[in-house]
Amino acid sequence: xxxxxxxxxxxxxxxxxxxxLEAMQPYFTDKFYNPSATYLAAxxxxxxxxxxxxxxxxxxxxxxxxxxxxxxGTEANNLAIKGVLQQYADxxxxxxxxxxxxxxxxxxxxxxxxxxxxxxxxxxIPKMARLITDKTVLISVMYANNEVGTIxxxxxxxxxxxxxxxxxxxxxxxxPLYVHTDACQAGNYLDLHVSxxxxxxxxxxxxxxxxxxxxxxxxxxxxxxLQPQIEGGRQERNLRSGTENLAHAVGIAEAIxxxxxxRQESAKxxxxxxxxxxxxxxxxxxxxxxxxxxxxxxxxxxxxxxxGQDNERLIFALDEQGILAAAGSACSASNEEPSxxxxxxGLSDAExxxxxxxxxxxxxxxxxxxxxxxxxxxxLYT
Length: 382
Hints:
Layout: E1 6-7, H1 18-24, H2 40-60, E2 67-70, H3 73-85, E3 92-96, H4 101-107, E4 111-115, H5 125-131, E5 136-140, H6 154-171, E6 178-182, H7 194-197, E7 201-205, E8 216-220, H8 235-238, H9 246-284, E9 289-290, E10 301-305, H10 311-320, E11 323-324, H11 340-344, H12 349-352, E12 355-359, H13 366-381
């Protein structure tokens, strides 16, 4: 029997927007030259690369020179964390306990502390303030959580960092304090303007913005110097060596411009679907628990726990009915350990392994939600 396909894993991957694909197309065929070559045709492409950089910079309110194109969010996060900490032998990094592995893993190579979160995955700022020492050089807190959708109070974090910088200056402590945010999940619905956020570095992932996979941006404020992680070509201001992927640079610049232009409209549409989804779930499956923040939450995220169930079994059963959902981050889907995000929120291992993530996007309809809720109810109760 053939079932309709309902895709509810937009946090893992988005389809490429046709407008973005059209913008990228010439760079796969006609405009294939290496932008670093010296002949005129290549130098013209170098100008187009810089045009893409300027477009991305304009969207987030930065200088073009503060945009570093990378091969996705993971590389950008590694460059941000390692690029700072490798310069400070005594430096420490604070990372939230609900970060993506691409922040947690590089941070683990240095003196690091995990910032605790509340039961809805919000960073506990008073506790974070007490964890900052004279050696803390970097704080990394994701803008919006990839599993439960909780939006973090980034502006409050950057304001706290500024107070500490001023105190250090008065005390004669020359150790800088930078704030980095992984904004990979935020771009479709939240403001990415760097001065309004007050951040020093920000990671953006094109594959979450209806742009190409393996395209990313690291915004690096001009007052920061980073240690490069990929050497040998001196591209991207010597921060990311290798032949520039012009198609992906053009693609992510187009994608972020469209996402930010449409974000308020998109958020409104998703909020209506989110309310409908949650209400339908609570009506059909009364014992399901909604995880994450209720107010400060990505509008396309619905994360639930179904007590006493096994999420792997549920994922397979939903898949058989054409519903594509997730148990957590796609990057750790092969890991049988319970989600570190849910553990940090206080869920037991059994509760974590009974949890499902549904993330909606441009193709999601109320009919999709009705089908998903009814199918899940049938799986649970028959």
